[in-house]
Specification:
The chain has 30 helices and 20 strands. By secondary structure, the protein is of the alpha+beta class. The strands form 5 sheets. Strands 1, 2, 3, 4, 5 and 6 form a 6-stranded mixed β-sheet that branches. The chain has a 5-stranded mixed β-sheet with strand order 12-16-14-15-13, with no helix packed on it. Strand 7 and strand 8 form a beta hairpin. About 35% of the residues are buried. It binds manganese (II) ion. The site of manganese (II) ion (MN) has 4 residues, from loops.
């Protein structure tokens, strides 16, 4: 690349370059310079609200990123973080990737996607979901680090923004970004974000606390470093191994104490605090003795949380003593182990439902990151360090927005149906469609992180489909669907359950009569604690009782009724082939991955018809098998890593279909009807009327009142199919028609 006036412009990042060269770590300085010059070209002519040239902002962010100890790519991403969004007419991710590599492009992409959220009026649980979603969306934790630096600089310069914007930005900083910085262990950034956010959210309270601090401690800025020095000298005299941490309480934390715990400023004794971390419990008491010898202790302020831990397992000795010039300060003494529990242990209390990772696991990972970023850890070469940050924190969860901006978290692989049921069972039960980011999407789609999901409901919806139970990912959705069927569809459940059980009985013996089967089912029902045969059929029908659970009992009961010599070995029924299987292009009508004339066959599980949305599966040996896109086998098969790459795009060649060059197709339906003598005759008459050939017809009685007719017939396409089905629905005594065998 060629840049103009490079030397002059590079002056702007002189202090950054100085910082990098004195860090002792290795950086790709040329790449960093290039990223700066490129960003500077892109933002040429753009200005911030303050009136400064825009490039001032990326430079400042890059400096904060570098000070955190992040790597070359993070610094480059900091320079480039606003280019793709703000200079879209000049650049894009592909260009960034070409110039600066895939990693930088990935970081910039992640940063571009982390849009501002409207979090006004959100409850804490929602805030927590938003924080977790941000972590999930930034596949690489460096995205969050750079984002925090970006946010920090924006907060430092928030004054220039319009009033309304200031408030929402500050609110978001307080509730989303500061807690994230805390969890990642970047205390300095967390504290500065909190203080700045407070300054805009409650300027009067902020000024009040600052005035108090000035009044009381204004003259003693180096108080705590002096205390540190004397305590350290004294502990060394006693040969203790220890770590000392000193801190000055921030404006925000004093504010919180005064307002949340309604304390007066004068009651806050831990403005200055010292923490002593030693090896053993005994040494804690030794150190306490030393402190009380050095300073006068304040009565009533000593707490022994070692002998009496707090309910959350917190252990420490707390005391408040009076230092030089009468200034009180708090001392906390604990072992390294107690320190660890104090910092991270509380996390163990937060558990999440829906099978996702527990808060504890998440915090363990975050804790590990914050340990890595600890500046004292000099052993790691920058590259190894950064590589280890590429972890997927919430790999097993998906976070989506509702149109109102709430975030819903569900296990990864959840479909739109799962999301509908997660909102409310009534939403799921009345769902007729869905939109993702405003576009209609099939309800079995799995939405991606950050997408806006809108569920379309209708009061006239007939309720969920039985297929949904095979599609949904979460047990919650499945059980809600099951509940619905249990309540709403008892008579249909009984028919379906009965046919399932009958089929199992037929596998055991073909020599049972209708009344014997009813007797068998009634006996099994009693054995599983149900009143009568219909109750069991109902339970099997709505899925509350998996048939596998009653197989053994069923077999025993069948063998009681059928004499052993009558037992018939089960033979797999051979498929009736009425239409020649299509092969080698002779029988066209399907375009596979853009190509005509491929060898394929139609899957028997779903019998796709022209007009159905379809997909191919590359079989071993006989070409591509064509399934309906919503076939349950496709939905489960797509999840299998082993088979995933064998799914292939397929579509109908509708012009061929129209000309009739493709032959005929098979359609399969089940008709639920009253057990009326006329019904079969009327169905076949209706089909003859429509010139539809019957390929196969089977009738089973269900109890005394109902029959199920399984019908296979010839069909031109999905439109033809729908018109056949709607005609059949008008046949007297037909109650319901379901596509497919099951
Ligand atoms: Mn920015």
């Amino acid at each position: 690349m060629h840049y103009s006036d490079t030397d002059e412009r590079l002056e702007q990042i002189k202090s950054l370059l100085g910082m990098l060269s004195s860090s002792g770590k290795k950086f790709d300085i040329e790449k960093i310079k290039d990223a700066f010059l490129y960003a500077s070209d892109m933002h040429e002519g753009q200005f911030r609200n303050s009136g400064e040239p825009y490039i001032v902002h990326p430079i400042a962010v890059a400096e904060i990123v570098a000070a955190l100890g992040l790597d070359t790519d993070s610094i480059c991403a900091a320079f480039l973080h606003d280019t793709v969004e703000d200079c879209s007419e000049k650049t894009n991710l592909d260009i960034i990737s070409k110039f600066f590599g895939q990693d930088v492009a990935m970081l910039v992409d992640g940063l571009t996607k982390l849009v501002d959220m409207n979090i006004e009026d959100k409850e804490e649980a929602q805030m927590e979901n938003i924080r977790r979603m941000l972590l999930a969306m930034s596949k690489d934790i460096r995205v969050i680090f750079v984002k925090l630096c970006d946010r920090l600089h924006n907060m430092r310069t928030l004054d220039a923004k319009p009033e309304a914007k200031r408030r929402t930005t500050a609110l978001e900083t307080m509730h989303v970004y500061a807690p994230l910085a805390h969890r990642l262990g970047i205390q300095r950034i967390k504290q500065e974000l909190e203080n700045l956010a407070l300054l805009y959210l409650d300027p009067i309270g902020y000024a009040e606390v600052t005035n108090h601090i000035e009044e009381k401690y204004g003259q003693n800025r180096d108080f705590i470093s002096n205390v540190r020095k004397s305590v350290s000298d004294e502990l060394e005299r006693y040969n203790l191994k220890f770590t000392l941490e000193g801190r000055v309480k921030t404006v925000y934390s004093i504010y919180r104490k005064m307002y949340n715990q309604s304390k007066e400023f004068d009651e806050i004794y831990d403005f200055y605090a010292l923490r002593i971390i030693v090896e053993t419990e005994l040494e804690c008491y030794t150190a306490l003795g030393i402190i009380h010898e050095m300073y006068k202790s304040m009565p009533g302020r000593f707490k022994d949380y070692i002998s009496t831990p707090k309910p959350n397992m917190y252990q420490s000795l707390h005391t408040t003593v009076i230092g030089r010039a009468g200034i009180p300060f708090e001392v906390q003494i604990r072992t390294r182990e107690m320190h660890h529990i104090a910092e991270y242990g509380i996390a163990a209390h937060w558990k999440y439902k829906s099978g996702a990772q527990s808060r504890e696991e998440i915090d363990n990972k975050l804790e590990w990151i914050s340990r890595l970023i600890d500046t004292e850890n000099e052993n790691l070469a920058p590259d190894d360090f950064m590589h280890s940050l590429k972890i997927d924190i919430f790999h097993d969860e998906t976070f989506v927005f509702t149109p109102k901006g709430d975030v819903i978290a569900l296990p990864q692989g959840s479909t739109l149906i799962d999301f509908a049921y997660a909102i409310h069972s009534q939403i799921g039960n009345r769902m007729v469609g869905a939109k993702i980011n405003g576009m209609i999407a099939p309800i079995d789609r799995c939405p991606q992180n950050g997408e806006i999901v809108e569920i379309i409901t209708s009061a006239s919806s007939k309720g969920p489909s039985r297929d949904w139970m095979k599609i949904v990912k979460t047990g919650e959705a499945r059980s809600k669907i099951r509940q619905w069927f249990k309540k709403e569809k008892r008579s249909e459940n009984i028919i379906i359950g009965r046919s399932d059980i009958d089929r199992e009985i037929a596998r055991i013996s073909k020599n049972t009569t209708e009344s014997q089967r009813t007797e068998i089912i009634a006996s099994v029902a009693k054995r599983v604690g149900m009143q009568e045969a219909d109750d069991l059929c109902n339970a099997v029908g709505y899925g509350g009782m998996p048939i596998s659970k009653i197989l053994a009992k069923l077999k025993e009961e069948v063998l009681k009724v059928v004499k052993p010599e009558e037992e018939v070995k089960i033979v797999e029924v051979e498929e009736v082939k009425t239409v020649a299987p299509p092969s080698n292009g002779k029988y066209g009508g399907i375009i596979i991955d853009g190509e005509r004339g491929c060898a394929f066959k139609f899957a028997k599980c779903c019998n796709p018809l022209p007009g159905d949305s379809i997909i191919g599966f590359i079989t071993k040996g006989y070409g591509v098998s064509i399934h309906k896109r919503d076939c349950p086998n496709v939905i489960t098969g797509m999840k299998s890593e082993e088979f995933f790459h064998r799914w292939i795009r397929a579509e109908w060649d509708l012009s061929e279909v129209k000309q009739g060059n493709t032959g005929i197709y098979e359609a399969v339906i089940q008709i639920f009807a009253d057990n009326d003598i006329s019904v079969i005759a009327n169905i076949t008459a209706a089909l003859a009327d429509m010139r539809v050939s019957i390929l196969q017809i089977n009738t089973r009685k269900q109890g005394d009142d109902d029959v199920v007719v399984s019908l296979k017939f010839t069909c031109k396409d999905i439109g033809h199919f729908n018109s056949v089905v709607s005609k059949l629905r008008n046949v007297p005594h037909v109650n319901n028609i379901v596509r497919g065998f099951n």
